[in-house]
Design goal:
The protein has 5 helices and 2 strands; from the N terminus they run ββααααα. By secondary structure, the protein is mainly alpha-helical. 33% of the residues are buried.
Length: 104
Amino acid sequence: MANPMRGEVDLVIDGQPRLARLTLGALAELEGALAAGSLMELAERFETGRVSGRDVMAVLVAGLRGAGWTGRAEDLMAADIQGGPLAAARAAAQLLALAFRGPE
């Protein structure tokens, strides 16, 4: 079960529950994988709904790796994410929101 205080999000991929979390290393990987000028620019794209499928995939891959997953982007592209593309986009947006939230 995900702990939002740690920045964790639950996903079910191919029927298997998985955690995703954007650690510093995962954020660095994400930054390298995307054509965004900065991670804040990426977060803004999610906030305004100008997000692409590539953005969603990159965030999910980075988040899954941040939580210990050893798969590749190609593995996720062929996987069934419970809830479909909309659930995947919501999970990616939640990961970014949790990673960049200010102090409570």
